[in-house]
Design brief:
Chain lengths: ~140, ~140
DNA sequence: CAGTATCCTTGCGGATACTG
DNA sequence: CAGTATCCGCAAGGATACTG
């Protein structure tokens, strides 16, 4: 059975939050859910400051296009800082902003929870994946 | 300046997590980032058990199509439980699963952080939104 | 009431080729 | 090296109409 106080606590917290912009939260999660965003934030969080190509090297599968796109997105979101040294050949480095580090920090407990409950998610997938996966 | 120990703590935690499936985390966030997922989870978390139409009434803007789609998605993800009473006229109720309540709980600190840092996000938007919003 | 069935637009993500 | 420029397929999201 579920802890009732947990639910009530959630209620109180959610009510307080509902007053603010609900779209902002979804916005952040939408961008965070994009294919490469989490990986880049994670990589920059671990490595500190990296060049464009170096990020690409550490994240197998990403194309230059998507890397640039995602980095620009993260920059617009204020999570990543871009340093263009205006040299020839070009040298550009990316690093997490304080906001980016903050997000990374906030994400960690969530990630751990997801992994702890991976079985639960997979179980749900199997229950429904076989039955009605084909119609979507 | 940013707390260095924070970064190192993040590093350690992230390294531990990287070993596991990175796609799963992104998967959860992708679904959570979908247009109506958060709102539904929040609504069900606060209200408990609701009928299809009642959810729609509490979330202005959602169409029946998207409501059904999102609910089905959440059901497949194991976050929401669907009760079909097989009556006529139809009566179907939705409620959060334990996993759903768990996710909601995990989300709350993240949401609070997002709202606390809303100024930071908006500031970033304004800095870049004006300059290069037109080319995307 | 609780959905499906269509049709449409938008944006993500990828492949490939090119440029300063 | 750090990008752009084009091309494409796919899925999210929305509008509208219909059904058991």
């Amino acid at each position: 059975m579920i802890d009732k106080t947990l639910i009530e606590h959630s209620q109180a917290a959610c009510d307080a939050l509902s007053a603010d912009d609900d779209g902002l939260k979804r916005d952040v999660l939408t961008h965070a859910g994009n294919r490469w965003s989490l990986g880049i934030v994670h990589t920059l969080g671990v490595a500190g400051k990296l060049r464009h190509a170096e990020i690409g090297r550490r994240m197998s599968g990403v194309t230059q296009r998507m890397l640039t796109r995602t980095l620009r997105q993260l920059e617009r979101d204020g999570l990543v800082i871009r340093h263009d040294y205006r040299e020839m050949p070009p040298r550009v480095e990316y690093e997490l902003s304080p906001l980016g580090y903050g997000l990374l920090t906030q994400m960690i407990p969530l990630w751990m929870w997801v992994i702890e409950n991976a079985d639960g998610f997979r179980a749900a997938r199997e229950r429904f994946g076989d039955a009605e996966a084909d119609d979507e």
